[in-house]
Amino acid sequence: GRVKMSAEEILVCAVELGKNFCLYFDELECDALCKEKTLHRVLRNVNSQLLVVRPDLNVAAFEDVTDQEMQSGKGMHFSIHCYKTTTPLAGMPVAFSVRVEDKSYYMCCERECGEMIVRFKEGEVPKEIPGESNIIFFKKTFTSCCSKAFKFEYSMERGMFLAFEEEGYLRKLILKKLSKDEVDETMKISL
């Protein structure tokens, strides 16, 4: 009888310790995102066009790309940096960077004249991100039945997603508000 008793007591202690330890840990993790893995992908829209970043022109747009252009791969081979998350429901936190002419550019969002603009700035993506960041997007499946395509929600303005809009012959990368319960094909991105 006595041995059992002490084993139970030890168990209870361990569980309580465990609980406190986890809680403490969770709080720590919420404050910072740590890079977990990096995927190397091209980003395609619903028309199978590739996202191409042209820093010299300050433009990112979905374009028809020839096989030859794709091999040279200027501004279209993205690194998708995945960060650890304690809130998987929001989606996987990711940051995007792309190499052009031996320089690295990262994607971020900035407010300009009252609207949110997607920008590419020279520099590397940080390994750790303390708290909020204008480079983080939440990767979500596009629709529940379509697990191959994604939409990317801007972490600092919920309901705003990466999308494209036609501007003349350009299909420019923009941030766009998703109206409730709507399926917006311009937000559909395949990796």
From TrEMBL:
CDD domains: beta-trefoil_IL18
Keywords: Cytokine, Cytoplasm, Secreted
Cleaved signal peptide residues: none
Subcellular location: Cytoplasm; Secreted
InterPro entries: IL-18, IL-1_fam, IL1/FGF
A GO-annotated cellular component: extracellular space
Entry coiled-coil feature ranges: none
GO biological process assignments: cellular response to lipopolysaccharide; cytokine-mediated signaling pathway; immune response; inflammatory response; positive regulation of cytokine production
GO molecular function: cytokine activity
PANTHER family, per database record: INTERLEUKIN-1 FAMILY MEMBER (PTHR10078), INTERLEUKIN-18 (PTHR10078:SF35)
Binding partners and assembly: Forms a ternary complex with ligand-binding receptor subunit IL18R1 and signaling receptor subunit IL18RAP at the plasma membrane. Mature IL18 first binds to IL18R1 forming a low affinity binary complex, which then interacts with IL18RAP to form a high affinity ternary complex that signals inside the cell. Interacts with cargo receptor TMED10; the interaction mediates the translocation from the cytoplasm into the ERGIC (endoplasmic reticulum-Golgi intermediate compartment) and thereby secretion.
Family: Belongs to the IL-1 family.
Protein name according to UniProt: Interleukin-18
